[in-house]
Design brief:
The chain contains eleven helices and twelve strands. It is α/β, with parallel strands linked by helices. β6 and β7 form a beta hairpin. Bound molecules: 5'-O-[(R)-(carboxyoxy)(hydroxy)phosphoryl]adenosine and zinc ion. The site of 5'-O-[(R)-(carboxyoxy)(hydroxy)phosphoryl]adenosine (KG4) has 20 residues, from α5 and α6.
């Protein structure tokens, strides 16, 4: 990057209210207010509750991010905000907050695609060069992207139904484990036997890089019910074994499909490949370890951003906003919220919707 840019980022597309200030590739502050407790009784994110909580917390998140960064609005070059995809009420809350700030300060406003924020994170954290292959894997998304430029993405495959984070969360509910399900299952699985239950690996033997996780979730329900019929309930060991089996299946699917995505990437871009992961599920230790081992065997650079920049945050939005601004592309106060906004506009829309809303 040439010119110094200091950007305020705002993120509110799902269940985290976040604000951050980023100067070039330095994260001056990154504030995230989670909403897990607000949704805990409902078994998933309730869009209306999420939107109200964002509206209440956004001002505080911005104020805190500015204070922690030690900057005033006069020090900023622009305000970047997630304009989609995501839950419409939350995205609107963020966009309205950013518009208010832009109108009051006269700063440029930049609408950022949330997925671009995740996809560009390896450049923020590790300054890797384009192009690279990315696995974006979260509660609402699962796709392989070739990232050729800040605004050029080619989707080489992804889920045809649930996202893995959604499957982790639903499986945790099935097993009586707390939300968010990913960390709960990872922790339970540490003491489990992954071989005790034979669980499917949907689409693993089909060609291509598409994935499916809904059949695995149904298989988990059956496996749990068979234990309950036999014993009248689940012991902690049953929970651990089921968790280990489930996590093992996800590791196998993501690893094998990454192998194929890398082969497709190599066919299109025959340089030494870099492979990066992002999204909340990329926080999972065994998934990271397996993908790292795969890359080591294929002489491929492996980049995994630190966990707090893998999950939803506003630093990635500020950074993606800076990339647009460097390219001379900013929005004005007519910016609108887009609940569906695929990164690769040529890609066919994905099927279905989950707890996190539309999948792009
Ligand atoms: O990227 P993220 O913060 O939000 C979006 O979905 O955009 O990802 C949240 C998802 C949740 O489904 C959560 O269960 C999952 O990431 N997750 C994990 C882990 N930590 C968070 N999944 C597996 N293992 C983890 N350690
Ligand atoms: Zn996300």
């Amino acid at each position: 990057m040439t010119q110094d840019l200091t950007i305020l980022g705002i993120e509110s597309s799902c269940d985290d209210t976040a604000a951050a200030v980023v100067r070039n590739t330095v994260v001056l502050s990154s504030v995230v207010y989670g909403q897990t407790a607000l949704h805990a009784d409902f078994g998933g994110v309730v869009p209306e509750i999420a939107a109200r909580a964002h509206a209440e917390k956004l001002d505080h998140a911005v104020e805190q991010a500015m204070a922690e960064a030690g900057v005033s609005f006069a020090d900023l070059d622009a305000i970047a905000v997630t304009a989609g995809p995501g839950l419409i009420g939350g995205v609107l809350s963020g966009v309205m907050c950013a518009k208010g700030l832009a109108a009051a300060t006269g700063l440029p406003l930049i609408g950022v695609n949330h997925l671009a924020g995740h996809a560009l994170t390896p450049r923020l954290t590790d300054q890797i060069t384009f192009p690279y292959l990315m696995l974006l894997v979260s509660g609402g998304h699962c796709q392989f992207l070739i990232v050729a430029a800040h605004d050029r993405y080619h989707r080489v495959g992804g889920t045809i139904d649930d996202a893995p984070g959604e499957a982790f969360d639903k499986t945790a509910r099935i097993l009586g484990l707390p939300q968010p399900g990913g960390p709960a299952i990872e922790s339970a699985a540490r003491h489990g036997d992954p071989k005790r239950f034979a669980l499917p690996r949907p689409l693993l033997n089909q060609p291509g890089c598409d994935m499916s996780f809904s059949g695995l979730k149904t298989a988990m329900l059956r496996a749990r019910d068979s234990v309950i019929v036999e014993k009248g309930g689940l012991t902690p060991q049953d929970q651990a074994d089921l968790s280990a089996g489930f996590q093992g299946a996800i590791v196998d699917i993501l690893t094998e499909k990454t192998r194929r995505a890398l082969a497709e990437y190599m066919a299109l871009t025959p340089t030494k490949p870099s492979f990066a992961i992002a999204g909340g599920v990329a926080a999972n230790g065994p998934i990271r370890a397996s993908l790292m081992a795969l890359c080591a065997g294929l002489d491929t650079d492996f980049i995994a951003p630190p966990l707090h920049l893998c999950t939803d945050n506003a630093a990635m939005i500020a950074y993606a906003g800076a990339a647009r601004m460097h390219a001379g592309s900013v929005d004005d106060l007519t910016l609108s919220a887009r609940p569906r906004w695929p990164l690769d506009d040529r890609a066919a829309p994905m099927l279905g919707s989950g707890k996190k809303g539309a999948k792009a």
